[in-house]
User: Fold these one by one.
Assistant:
Number 1:
Amino acid sequence: MLNTRFCSYDDWFIGSTPIKKGIPEDTIKQTKMFSYNDINSLKELIEQNPDQLACVVLEPSTMDHPAASVDVEGETYLHDVQRLCKKHGIVFILDEMITGFRWHIKGAQHYYNIQPDLCTFGKAMANGFSVAAVAGKREIMQLGSIEFAGSERLFLLSTTHGAEMCGLGAFVKTVEYIQKNNTIEHLWNYGQKLIDLMNRKAKEAGIESYFQAGGVPCSPWYMTYGPDGQADLAFRTLFSQEMLKNSVLIPWIALSHSHDEKELALTEKALEAAFKVYKKAIDAGSTQGYLQGDVIKPVFRSIN
């Protein structure tokens, strides 16, 4: 069965995860990893593989904003990566599948004032419809162009996986809606309210050391910790379970323009109820007796 939404033909990416079954060994070896916000880890990688790296691919922002540049005041880690790529002739690619149409309608690259060589967009681009886009600098994109008669080109476009017209129509209407209704601004404002609410309720419940919300406001995160202070999936499961009992589905946080004060009030009541159970489990030293199902597991894991 082919999953058209997320296909493992992106084997360079899948090969970087614990789920490597079916991925050619050469692909795994050719995919190198470095640490976000740690420019030295990328420098070391380039030094270890001189003239061997074709491109550097990363998300503009992960759980938090990119760190400040170590070289230029007022710039970010992304600019340091870009300079390093340019110095060594490496294509600099930003994955905007998540950040695009959320950080800014022009992407996080606009928010952080940086221009990659190539970038990708999808997901919120058409509000869930199957549409994606690759954009980039002309000197790279034209390698796949048909405008130069007699020139050999890269094969970049196939209608085998082309979007249907309904998806393209959804993209047009999504952009119109975002612009008309100030959706991006709403996501930032609502996200900050939600972060503040979750942290305030955790403090009121006496579990602020065991539950924390944070991140970039337009794309918040929350962390759950056990009695030992370590990140704990059992307590994350318990929190999700108790929130669901109170009509809030929140295995992670994905903000929508439809989220408003009514939803925030509902979330507040659910937090109060969930944190009461969470506090009991913390005091008991375990989620045993409180969980009603299996513990949440990471998506990318080698053993079930």
Number 2:
Amino acid sequence: MSKVSTLQAGIAPASLAPVRVGQLAQRLAARFKGWVLPLALIAVWEAVCGLGWVSANLLPPPSDLLATLSELVASGELYRHVVVSSARVAAGFAAGALLALLVGAAVGLSRELEAYLDPTFQALRAIPSLAWVPLLLLWLGIDEAPKITLIAIGAFFPVYLNLVAGIKNVDRKLVEVGGIFGVKGWRLVLRIFLPAALPNLLTGLRSGLSLAWMFLVAAELIAATRGLGYLLTDGRETARADLVIVAIVVLALLGKLSDSLLQLAERRLLAWRDVYDSGR
């Protein structure tokens, strides 16, 4: 090895170090931007409550909410509520998304099925979540079945709509090329239609998961004794605004966490796309 190449080998890693540090700093700064608005709102909220402009009974300051949260964590009560609600959302979302995947693929690939099924689904989509509660109580009782069913209903429609739209927007040339190479039937669906519709499907899954958390609150109005929806109801009945707000904050954090996991999966699965990056 020559003297020049030896020097380059020793200098190159050192010269890359500032670049890596700069990239890391940029990533941390980009992530911190998302905290600016929440932290500013918390500061204003604490100041307004401290000045006595709002009654603490109606809007407790963030410091009181932190104390309530600490009590719930220390007693283990919050953990039990979170586990029960997360299990219900996971079961309902999985059931609704799987059914939407099967029905959406069938409707998207068949105009005949679309003519029969899609108008009904569009009508059912407009029904509010609370309107399902009395009917599910009559049909399924007060156990876990009506709660999971209601969450599945909420998750079904976004996944279904986005998948059907994604399949209908598949480039006709891709299908023709697949036919030339003898890709037909289910192979055509698995190798052409679903990969091409994957961006829409992942968007639908994220929307469906968000609605699953929203429908959870309505679901836990059905004779629930555990869960974040029950915690909301308990706070309302005991006139504890701090309990209600803590439950809302925990729901928001869980929804954001689950959406971030799906967003991470979306980035990995769609890494092949060459799309516009507004950060460049």
